[in-house]
Amino acid sequence: MNKIDKFFSSFTLRLAEKYPRKTKLYLYADYFELVALFNGNISVSISDMLDRLHDEDIIRLIIEDEDIDFNNQSLVNDTEEAFVKEVFDLIRQRDSFFSNDYPFYYLNLSISLKTHLSEKQKLYIFLLLASNLNLFNEFQSELTKEFELLSREALKNYLPDFAIVKSFGKNAEFQGYVYDKIKKLAELMNVNIDEDYLNTISQQGTQDLGLDVVGWLPLKDNIGNFISVFGQCACGKEWNKKLNETRRYNKFLKIYLSEISHSLFIPYSLVNYNDLTFYEHHEFGEAILVFERHRILSLIKNDNIFNSFNSNELVEKCINYSEDII
After folding, report:
1. What digits encode the pLDDT tens for the residues 64-94?
2. CATH of domain 141-303
3. FRET pair for 2, CA 20 to 30 Å: which of 83, 253, 257, 306?
């Protein structure tokens, strides 16, 4: 039995040991999509998801902050249903926003997996799995490594054709210890190193110190003054803790007369369609360029990149796997 078959032989889909706050509506939309993914082509309705959240004993916890009389069962039922409808409304908006890249059908407050998925739709599922490493932790290494590759491709397509884009994390094109890698990066970018600051890190450290992808727009001279983008890739639920990791490179490198643009790549679908902002935008703090699920997917021009991923086997298994989980 291979790794994937062994994993699914005992797989159980549950939301999380620590359920998300109600305000993290995008995480609940992801969960509803996972339920639809593992329910084959059978539609998942509001009543199905209400039953499921009751079975997992979490629906009451989700609405516990509501200012309602919990002794009034009719009112409690209405509040629970209103929450599930709110999640389905976000799914409806995703269906419209992602358009042909969305791998699910949304119809009359129900969701089901499409048949004959395109490569872009499979990439959406890849991003959905990468957003739920707690459920697929045995594949964390593959999912995070290949999410970095996808992020590099997205950054490459976002910048002009003459931009230089490199991997610096798990797929690093720079070999050796991070101390040496930073020096090689500076040499390639034609910028100076702050030796005093760089010497504060171990010369034999192997961590990437927060930098996963980097891109810059060189000009036809030897002056290190140009636009540069330093990106961190974060798949975990606590992605907010990685927001400032690339900023240490402000100290390592002496970017001449310009500033580094810092970016965060996350597989989550963060767009709040009601006011065209990001969910949890209060977390971002300082200026940062965000690449979330829709932005990344829209920047992928080569649909066949998915075929080069080891994770495509996991995605295919998920598409074909069906379990009576409603």
Report:
1. 777 777 778 888 888 899 999 999 999 999 9
2. 3.40.1350
3. 306
